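Q: What does the assembly look like in three dimensions?
Context provided by user:
Components: two
Sequences:
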Amino acid sequence: MDRIVHNNIVDEIRKSFLDYSMSVITSRALPDLRDGLKPVHRRILWSMYSSSFTPDKPHVKSAKIVGDVMGKFHPHGDSSIYEAMVRMAQWFSYRHMLVDGHGNFGNIDGDGAAAMRYTESRLSKISLELLRDIRKNTVDMLDNFDATEKEPTVLPSRFPNILVNGTMGIAVGMATNIPPHNLGEVIDACVAVINNPDVTLDELMKILPGPDFPTGALILGNSGIRKAYETGRGSITIRSKATIEEKNGRNYIIIDEVPYGVNTYDLKNKVADLVHNKIIEGISDYHSDMKNGIKITITLKKDANAQVVLNKLYKHTDFQTNYSIILLMLDQGVPKTLGLKDILVKYIEHQKEVIVRRTKYDLAEAEKSAHILEGLKIALDNIDEVIKIIRGAKTDLEAKDTLMSRFGLDDVQSQAILDMRLRRLTGLEREKIENDLAELLELITDLRDILAKNERVMNIIKEEILEIKRKYADERRTHIDMTAIDYIEDESLIPNEDVIIALTNKGYIKRTTSDTFKAQNRGGVGIKGMSTNEEDFVEQMINIQTHDDVLFFTNKGKVYRLRGYEIPEYSRQSKGLPIINLLQIEKDEMVNSIIKITRDKVNDSSNLIFVTKSGLVKRTSIEEFKNIRQSGKICITLKENDELIAVKMTNGNDLVILGSSNGRMCRFNENEVRIMGRTAAGVKGIELVDATCIGASICSEDDEIIIVTKNGYGKKTSISEYRQTKRGSKGVKAMSISDKNGDIASFKIYKPNTDLVLITDLGMVMRMSTDQISTLGRVTQGTRLMKIKDNSVIATVSLVDTDKEENEDINTEENTIENNTEPVDK
Amino acid sequence: MLKDNDDALTGDDVREGITMIISCKHPDPQFEGQTKTKLGNAEVRKIADDVFSEGLERFLMENPQEARIIIEKTISASRARLAAKKAREATRKKDLDISNFYGKLTDCSSKDPSECEIFIVEGDSAGGSAKEGRNSMTQAILPLRGKILNVEKARLDRALGNDEIKSIITAFGTGIGDEFNLDKLRYDKIIIMTDADVDGSHIRVLLLTLFYRFFRPIVETGHVFAAQPPLFKITHGKTRKYVLTNAERDDYIASLREKNVKFDISRMKGLGEMDAEELNETTMDIEKRVLKQITVEDARLADQIFSDLMGDEVELRRKFIEENAKFVENLDI
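A: Here is the predicted structure of the complete assembly.
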């Protein structure tokens, strides 16, 4: 019956997983630092080399090569071998192709290579530099899988292939992505390291500024490159090379280099998709030509802005890509993420080993030859006796023995004498042997000298590598654009337009284009700006441009920012979107002031003045609000239970008026509040006795003020009746407060053509023209504005523009939409 | 939140688990049936619809966080629905007469689960010799193509849509998830037979992940085994000797050396290297083979190892590899 052994699933998984992952890491997916090759590539090159499929011979069928590789060295799938070989023969995959292919090896449009029975290949010339000296015992050789062949553990790699061609691979738990580089630059960097082992990264980057892709294109900026060269990881942005041409009044975008690894067929489909989905507009035709490299011609519609279309293409398609560099490779069989200099230093160490081993090999060979020549020389010097001995011997063994004992030769030498041809006896030949010997002895001295002197080894490395540079290096193809910004601001994709932002009392927001409100003739009925939910109304409308920033201040003392275009555009009738969907505000957080700032305006001397419920005021320069992240920032530090009630923009010498719930007004010059930082808490603005601050306004002497009480009473009073006091004073009495009219709910500065909206805590809404409110003296109770039912009080008071339906003079419309900065607060 | 190629959500997905109460005052209510279970006034439906849809839309707009939670719940309901549907489909096929079942499974002729075994074989190339070499009375063969899906990372509905996994589910007969029934298991032994190389190890890991996640009771009750194909082939004269371990190999070589026999030794890589007869003798024959039974000693630890090594988080995997790199035994070079 069965013999059964038991194994815990945990142990089984751990062991099997480890076997697999370690094998993938150390002998499948990652390249060796020294030759930049994964095992499959190394085996292909070695197999082709040992079968002499070299550039000086005709191409051979790819299937034959794949069969050889699979049968001799690489017992895995044929397709993975063929695919690896095909890539080595593609100009757009390898910076310097290692295989010289004949036939269809695929193209950048994503078409694959023809089947391996059709195509033919041989090693490329530069591959020979990877393999050079391999027969001189320069690298360790190991048995293949069935011990019938030897294969190299690494190639001599006489140029730094790891950087020149790069590689990409996904192992388990780690991946590598090494970009290709320019051969000449990498070699110069090697030389720089040899010349000065303490060379800095900055110096190296002057020689080797960055990757150089076979497909050309542009790299934007070099901070990502630097990071990668320093730490082994970094990200770069590659952008297609594009030009805009104008012909017959039409614009064309011509793209003749695309980022590395981009498939132009997918690119075309992606563009088609974007055009179809109207994400990119203005493209009327797309034509791609594969002849002599790539040429993609994008025809634009007549009214299209070529730069905007191009920017959109960069943003949405692989015409611009991010390439993340991961310099992960095997160093002595261990995966390591290395910086540029480490790689170069370790590569040079490898070269040193190659040269030392080659020299030792050459030395041994030379010594062997010299030894034989020495024997021959002895024989020639005594040729008569030698001939006699040979003639006298019965067997060659006997002749050998006698020669050895007579002249003190060894086995190898006497064998050589026996193998010598008679023609060697001519005078000229004899001289030649002597010369050869002298040369060899000189060579031996030289080789020994090399082995003894490290700097000679280094010089040889330099000379030989510079020779490779001279033979194979070409111009850099990828341009590194130090001036470009590597990301595309949304702005460059969006035209700067005049728009209107509307915010309702309940926090619904929307953007409409200014021309939604077409100018009507005088006397027209006007149009409604926004429809709202029943108990809601438009509280603020500001005119901005799409590229402007809008700041949103909330009762919790935080400020958020949106660009104009980030506020969703809706039709005139739509209700808009609750602002909570746009800002990361909490549920009980309410926006109570919005202020537009124009970002480009430098040295803006405007200030913002903040007022809290407990009567604190703070003044802060607007400059501090020019960089507010979307996640919000604190705009004033609030004490517990305090709330921010108003934010106003001031010009530096404005009058501020604060009101308290128990009927007092404090008016002072903003200069009395010194300018503080963004997160400061502020100073006392009005002294409150059992009351709260209920509002603030910027006013002038000629203004009239509208005061509304909780029980629905109100009045208009000239500001001049309220004498200017000091900041932090109790202020002056603004209204007679009694049980009848109740505490002050709010106050507003009167403006013509406005309506006052009153809302009770039960949601009753009343709207009236501000012109209907009676103007009364300072110490009066006011008149009834709204009938309030029992136990209900006025909760919200707003001043809004007179509705368009009622507005008689439509031509003043633009003026009635408040131009920003003076939002109406609650 | 919903990807383009995801299935659309249905009303049922949204309503799953929700009870709604509508308070409605009607001057002239008409009920259907004596028990008044349904209101007959048609106009109420429209009014309720209008009021509700407006209110709901507004709620969703004004409370994006809650809206997100509702959508997430709905998507998970939708995925559960699709997974359940696929699981039903997968198990339903087993109800068909098994001889009608076409596919890759080569079943055994015995219908007695206590004596049947199923070999899950890596690759079609080994499947053929396994078919020839088996005992057709009790041994069934299911060849798999390449690497199966990692179910730890894939979503349930995608896993269940995978052909290889479907054929495994169908072959086992137990069903999965809620419908899992260990009594319906059609084989006493489930034997994973993969090549003795590192890819074989990987496939074994993937299969064990599948079994542990979808058929855990089968693993826990000791029905899962790993076949032990020979590691070395030693040839001398016309004899071929297969051995399982390094120690066995060394012993055998020593005995050959004593007798002064010349021999060749090779490391076996794939099941396909053996012909049917050899495969049977070395790996499948009940009398001669060695099986490795996979047991679960610590379920919590097992659970942990699957989620660490096979799950989404690369870091955990990487850490494991770094910590254990020195313990690796078989490296493929």
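Follow-up: Residues 804-826 of chain A have pLDDT under 50 and may be disordered.
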